[in-house]
Amino acid sequence: MTARAAIVTGASAGIGRATADRLVAGGWRVVGIDRSAAAVEGFELLVGDAGDASVLGAAVERLDGRLDALVCSAGIPPSGPWDSRDHWDEVLAIDLTAPYEALCITWPALVAGRGSAVLVGSIVGAVEGSLRSPAYAAAKAGIEGLARSFAIIGAPVAERLLPADHRMDVPLGRMGNAEEVAAVIGFLASPEASYVTGAVWTADGGRTVLSMADADRAGIDRRR
């Protein structure tokens, strides 16, 4: 069998590095992207900007055009000064625009491979504001909107597996089954979810991210 293939940004250290190492341990073929060079084992690291179209394109080429997963982990942590426009522009470029560019560049390969994209967010922005870094808070709040939007954009090309209870008001086009919910529960009950607590997980085929306005445009009745 051909190994599953992934691109991980911010792969030199932190969450990105841990993710790349975990995927490699699971038999994945991984290409990492980071602005900082580092000694890595088991995967190739491209040194460059995670939002650079040429670097992203090169990563897809290294994987022979096949992509099962994109993980956007690169980012600037919360920092100041809060009132610096230069700092604002830099944080937004790396923490928000770069994931958008990565999605756009890798989208054809993800669609062809029926792959998944994971954007690393934060409670800062999604839940909290930031006294020292409104740029970081804004970027991470934007990441959630970006993820919801691409979930809807990608739904029509997702694997359908339509059952008899086909639902047009669910972006994935169907109701979920017990096994799919059990898979999420199984993860949350496992030692792998040791740092998850007090969180609300939604497994609904994207129904809650489909706005009434978009449903109306598509002629979908969300009242079902």
Descriptive overview:
It is a single chain. By secondary structure, the protein is of the alpha/beta class. Helices cover 41% and strands 10% of the residues. The protein is built from seven helices and five strands; from the N terminus they run E-H-E-E-H-E-H-E-H-H-H-H. It has helices spanning 14-25, 53-62, 85-112, 123-126, 134-154, 178-188, 212-217, and strands at 5-9, 29-34, 44-47, 69-72, 116-119. Strands 3-2-1-4-5 form a five-stranded parallel beta sheet, with helices on both faces. Strand 4 (69-72), helix 3 and strand 5 form a beta-alpha-beta unit. Helix 2 (53-62) packs parallel to helix 3 (85-112) and helix 3 runs parallel beside helix 5. The mean pLDDT is 87.
